[in-house]
Design brief:
Elements: H1 13-24, H2 37-44, H3 51-73
């Protein structure tokens, strides 16, 4: 089972993930780890990202989550 937490910065996603890990032994993957450097820079400066950049990020994130899921099952 996979839970995905989405929300604005500072909305408590990491806190909720840590509670789930602590109380239910959930594995946590921080999607920020998959952000390309250029997107990190833009997000830190509040500059909007392009649809193309977003699509590349989501593709990378989905691929990474599928690998993690496969490794958890095996």
């Amino acid at each position: 089972m996979i839970f995905v937490l989405f929300g604005l910065p500072g909305s408590g996603k990491t806190h909720v993930a840590q509670v789930l890990r602590k109380h239910f032994n959930f594995f946590i993957h921080d999607g920020d780890d998959d952000l390309p450097p250029v997107m990190k820079k833009l997000l830190l400066t509040s500059v909007p990202i392009s649809d193309e950049m977003r699509d590349v990020f989501f593709k990378k994130l989905i691929t990474h989550v599928k690998i993690l899921e496969k490794n958890m099952i095996n």
